[in-house]
Fold this sequence. Notes:
Structural class: alpha/beta
Number of domains: 2
Mean pLDDT: 97
Radius of gyration: 27 Å
Helix content: 40-55%
Bound molecules: pyridoxal-5'-phosphate
Distance between the termini: 33 Å
Number of strands: 23
CATH topology of the largest domain: Rossmann fold
Amino acid sequence: MDTKTFKSRLAQMLEHSFGKNIASAESHQLHDSIAKVVMEDISAQWKKSTEQHLAGRRAMYLSMEFLMGRAVYNDLLCLGLTDVVDEALKAEGRSLAELEDIEDAALGNGGLGRLAACFLDSAAAHDIPLDGYGIRYKYGLFKQSIVDGFQHEEADNWTKYGDPWSVRREEDSVEITYGDQKVLAVPYDMPIIGYGTKNIGTLRLWQAESADDFDFAAFDSGDYDGAVKAQNDAENISKVLYPNDNCEAGKILRLKQEYFFSAASVADALRKHKKRFGTLDNLADYVTIQLNDTHPVIAIPELIRQLIKEGFTFDKAFDTAHKVFNYTNHTIMAEALEKWDSKMVEKVLPDVYAVILQINERFYADMYAKGLDKAQIRKMAPVGDGMVKMAFMAIFVSSYINGVAAIHTEILKNDALKEWYELYPERFQNKTNGITQRRWLALCNPELSAMITKLLGNADWVKDLDELKKLEKFADDESVLNEFMAVKEAKKHQLADFIKAHDGKEIDPDWIFDIQIKRLHEYKRQFLNALGILYIYFGIKDGSIKDFTPTVFIFGAKSAPGYRRAKAIIKLINEIGDYVNADPETADKLKVVFVQNYNVSYAEKLVCAADVSEQISTAGTEASGTGNMKLMLNGAVTLGTYDGANVEIAEEAGEENEYIFGARVEELAEIMPAYDPRDILFKDGKIKRVLDKLIDGTFSDGGVPSDQEGSFRELYKALTDGASWHVPDHYYVLGDLNSYIEAKLRMNADYKDRLAFAKKCWLNICNAGKFSSDRTIKDYAENIWKI
Ligand SMILES: *Cc1c(COP(=O)(O)O)cnc(C)c1O
């Protein structure tokens, strides 16, 4: 489409929808009409692609979360329409930049949901017939503001101005039955536009509605509450995303949500398949389902249940399920391994529970046949100890199980799921996560993209990120490194301007930007970063740290609203910020900024402006991480532990181009049993000086009683005495602190040689090819889905 055509269609759409013209429309009206013009434009091709997906073997990606971010810029980029639309708007005194007000589609918590979004993008771009299935939450992840240093949450009503990128497909609705209610699942489809190809995939999000028409008779005869309640109870199922990242919720509504989209997606697949082939016998030849963590594992007994209803025997249905399903494990942390109380499952999903028991019987039969030890069988059974163990059910039934980074998969095989690996070694694979370079470079960093394209002589890297390797030959080219530094500087200026406008904080673009952005979680150790800042602050003041290159420490993170220790860490970071930022003696050396409402759109600005990427989880806790990849791709060095994909990042870019510190997984296994953090505290005066600040009244935690979670004294006690069910300093914060400081100061000193530092950054970009989700998705397609 050319600019003139687009402009006239946009003008028509605005007139028709709002009675406005391009110059007079509100920005959300502009957005709505741009979306509608694009949706009209792609509609025929989308339909064609959908039919092509259904005609052959295809993959379904079931995920409780899809953290899509803003659609408009990405869709225009993928269609090659960005300039066309911008020119059309500029002719009327408007611009695409105004659409920055548009809300993100934040139907996910963090990495797991963003991974699902990157996978859809990569599959679409590479003509892989993959479609996403999830929940159309009315409220996505809460919006965060920081008030007096505390996190405040506000509902995320993301469809307030409508949802022009979705199409309601009433005709594909599915009735979902629970023990105590029936609801209707109504699909809303979003196009997933493949970059540089005609292929358009689909993200199908199910919305819960009442299965029955509003009961006017009951309403009229006086049962007002009953009639309204039946409607509300149904709608509640897709009302809100659970805001716990990496943590099981265990609530009835959560189980209902999991079943809701799993059952609807399975029914959808069977209905489409039967319509096409008239039989379900060959289902597994055409449909493969990837389960994104255990949240959709209930789809396994549900598929078997639906097949039995269609006349399959249990064994035949089980065999089909085995061929159809694959399961991705995302964590080894105990608190995140999903289990459901059997009684609850039986009550909420009686028919499904009956199938779960049959699966469990089948497990016993198979294991007895193998002659496995009986205690061992009991331990591994999908049902036991009054619980349904979702991961065990998934591994028992699926064809393939994968971890999400090399080290993570090794831990699964050798430790967390050792017995399972011994039983089914052929089922285990690794699929190191990735990110899409369309959003995380082409879209968010046009300056660096243009430079790369110019140097390579083409833009092939947008579809083949390994092309970046060819940039290595410029690693000693001063003019190239200077140009790269100028790009980085421009991105730092842009971020500084945005932070000023969005958060009201001033930062100096000439300083080092040291950035930690990710969900707030103890295992991710923002606490370690906070203590490190205090450590350095005191070191500068007492003269033991000299020649410190001025650094701004930037944090972005949401905490689950009920996770009180994480919230205390947010408050602590802000207290430390207020304290050090106000000290004139260090005012030209360090500054701390906590930005509000970290989300995909904010990430797009932050990742391009970082000099240093903080990836400091305790070794063995971060399955992969994907934030680490975004920062690497945009030319930041990693200051990180040997954890998750950091290991592979260091391997690809060369360890000399990162700052790796801290105890390794195998070291921690030796250290932790006898670890006593007080040994460190009492022996190391510099560490004691930092920790004392938590309890000497310098910082205010807002008056939380000292024996309660959420107080700074409690954070202190978690390090020294342990908290909840954890041992003292469960995440080895004090143990790694000195090593962390050493790496950080070494990085800080290295930065002074700007050219040498730029070379490290450059080599990170050159070697980021492996971390494209294009590579990951092709690996799934070839080695798991056989597509
Ligand atoms: C990439 C991303 C994440 C995941 O970050 P990690 O550092 O891997 O935990 C979380 N939230 C948002 C908004 C992201 O874009």
